[in-house]
Every structure is written in structure tokens, then in C-alpha cells.
Description:
The chain has helices spanning 19-31, 41-53, 68-76, 82-112, 121-144, 154-171, 177-204, 208-239. The chain is mostly helical. It is built from 8 helices and no strands. It is flat, with a radius of gyration of 24 Å.
Amino acid sequence: MNQPVEMSMRNRTGIDRSPADSQKMIDAANAYMPSSKGNGSALMDMESGYIQEAEPVGTVAIPGTLKGAAKATMQMLAGRNAEVLVDKLGERLAFERTGTRLYDYFINKCETMHCEAPISIDTLKRFRQEESQHFKLVANALETLGADSTSQTPGADVSAVASSGVLQVMSDPRTSVDQSLEAMLNAELVDNAGWDLLVKLADEMGLEDMAKDFQVALSEEDEHLMEIRQWYEQCTLKQAGAI
């Protein structure tokens, strides 16, 4: 396991590396003060205008079919905002697809760097398989509602943008196992909260079977979060020489 934290002369980002030049920069900044006493409120006003005029990120697609079980389920949801559930299912679907890729990257990094305890490659592979199964579970839930599981919902769009940074960390060959663990912890925290919300949504909408399936997934995600968090803490403490 490579060491992500070390002292090196290559890092020249701080002003203490060159006190004389740093003082020149400070003097120049003081010599040319801002031309106005603005506090940024004008910029916020402009941004507020954009917010008020902006279109939504997207919409939920009209169900492609309302036959059989899908029709019965939609009738059960009469009077409820079923599109909210569809949106959140689409969000979870996109996240689980990304989660599977994250574990692929992480497993490869751990195997390449010959990770030592406490990280277990076998456990990571099981987590990866469970993420893939969760993807299929959500896809089936969408089909039960008569929704198209290939349709991109607004929540899926936002989730993809929000998780893109984690994906970049995981796919970067320069990042260490420890740094990747922190990125995975961020992903699992969001994933765990997402499943918890899905359980509550399905339960409140009277979809008992769906809620039970989601609860099983949430229990597995609880284990993912617990293990990743413990590994991250242990690896960091070990690096610091605390254990």
C-alpha cells in the first residue's frame, strides 16, 4: 500500500517557501485596492435572476406501459405523487450503476498495490456484486410502476454530476488506497441515505413488498458503510503511527 502523505521539496504551494516574493505580492495587493466598496451582492442579484428564470434540470418520463401489475400499482398510488418515487428510483439506479464501477476501480487498485489488512479483497468483491444486484432491484421496481428503467430522471442527472468527483478520484492512477477509501466513504454515505429514503417512500405509499426488498438492500448498504468507514479509520491511524 503506497503512502499518500509525505514531506517533499516538490510542494511549493505555500507562501512560506519564498518570504521575499510573498511580501511583494502582499504589498502589490495593498497598493491596488478595489475600485469600489462592493460586497458581492450585485453578483448574487445576477445569480438570483438566473435561478428564477431557469428551467428544471429535467422531467420524469410518462410511463411507457400501464399493463398488468404496473396498472394495479399505479392505481394503488392514486392521489400520491408517484413521479417523486420514480424520480428517486431513477436516481438510485444511476448511483448503483456508478457504485458498481467504483468498486471495480477500487478492487483493481487494491489488487495492484497488494493491499494488506484490514482491507479484504473478497469482501470488496461481495460488495461489488451486491451493488450490481441493487441496480437490478431498482430496475425491476421501476418496471413494476410501469416506468422505463432506461429513462433518465432529474434526480439521476443531479446524482451523476454530484458523484463525478468520486469517480475521478477512483479512476486516477495517482490516488492511493487510503485516498480511494475516503472517496468510497463519501459514496457509501450518500448511497446509504438514498436507500433509507427509498424504504420510507415505498412504505408510506403502501408498497409493502417493495419496501421489504429495499430494506434488505439498506441492510447490505449498512454493512458496506460500516466496513469502509472502519477500514478508512484504521488505515489512517496506522499511517499516523497511532496504532
